[in-house]
Specification:
Chain lengths: 307, 246
Amino acid sequence: MIEIDQVSKSYGERRVVDRLSLSVGAGELCVLLGSSGCGKSTTLRMINRLIPTDRGSIRVGGDDVTSIPAELLRRRIGYAIQSIGLFPHWTVEDNIATVPRLLKWPTARVRDRVSELLEMFRLDPATYRGKHPHQLSGGEQQRVGVARALAADPELLLMDEPFAAVDPITRDALQAELAHIHRTTGKTIVFVTHDIEEALRLATRIAIMDSGRIVQLGTPLNILEHPANDFVREFVGHQGLGLKLLSVRKIADRLRFGETAEGEPLGLNASLGEALSAMTTRHTDRLAVSDAKGRRIGVITLGDLVR
Amino acid sequence: MRAGRFLANPVLWVGLLFAALLLRMDVLQPLLRLGFPGVEPVIYDRDSFLALFLSQLGLVAVASLAASLVGIALAVFVTRPAGRDFRAMVDALATVGQTFPPAAVLAIAVPMVGFGARPTVIALFLYGLLPIIENAVAGLEGVPHGVREAAEGMGLSSWQRLYQVDLPLAAPVILAGIRVSVTIAIGTATIGSTVGALTLGTPIFDGLVANKLPFVLEGAVLVALFAILTDLLFARLDRWLHRTAG
């Protein structure tokens, strides 16, 4: 879906992106992870040409981004940012309808799409479509911001630290919603963050960046288990590494099929971390596990978590 | 309830008082004779107050409209990437325009364009430009960065960003600049009477020259009411703008 090939960008003497190459497949949620100034936002903003590249090429869906007029390119790519940038003088409906209207969708289709998106983010269309941004909470504003980015059903979604400014509880809910949307729609998403927990939770692949280059590219588990160098080891953190591993490993691999246990079963795609949490709160060392249809298929024990 | 709010509206009362004085100043004749014994005529009678007002309204409207269009256009230009380098120059020119006393602008303009309405309009235009440019630049620069980035990132063209985002969001601040500019213009326009423009300042200057204090009083009260009424109307426009902007 995206091919970034040997792209560089300098501001004066300072090279913020340095011969960076990255390819992101369709349906991936690729997280660009790094501390501020590592070039992750610049890389993201070069994809929709908010920043021009100095050298190298970027292709989206097979087309070189410079071969398409910038405005038309951007209408094909969803864009959500930390400051949200909702238009304060427009209603929620008008905000979400921005790109569909630019693309001249018929009125009825725009209306239906707005309702569909509001429902997807569990905002009642009748209540919310006529509100103005200042009448919404921070979490609701960011939901509308992401809904706006998804409005014209873009093939690709770019997100620049979208949840960095909301409180931890809201952030948790927003991350869960994004993960759900990614699973159900299969959109390709490039997501910039400096928050390792967020990256581990959402990413199918993480690109860890430093000084304008990718220092390691891999799945969350891969990066935790085999950090490429000291920088990555430092960045993902020695502290709580075990807990982070528990949070990215799934219980499916450790399951004892055919055995049974008491109590509410855990879903098959829960992480080991969630299993540990459930064991702790329920004062047990055995949990039942069910498949997607709710059938009990096995158990997981405390010992299995650390095997 | 609705009628109550309508009656409590100051625009209504100031407007009625202004209209009444404009059309029937003569009903005050006995009162003025009492206050200024021996002055005849006690009511200015060379032109009707209505004609003077309409002439001044025309001068102010033409000058303020031109100043608004030019001022906003310049502000838009210097806040776009292409015009950023001209920012300091435009600021300086507008400030210089403001430092010239309007009387001096009239004195310079008369030899070039002659007596009457034209030098007055030029003076009002130059004088009214600064508050409009200053406010329009502040309003356009006050559009939150995130809003502009989102607009660009979603694929609005530069014209669409200007018309759909920047100008509507800057509108209340731009309007405040126009309000100041127009109010100043109404006061300043009276000086145009010294170079032959017909305004409510004409009875003031005639009264000063002929030592007829009632004329000065009549002109001054009408100009003041004109300015107050205009300001009240702008206040209503501002409230309406804020309501529609949510």
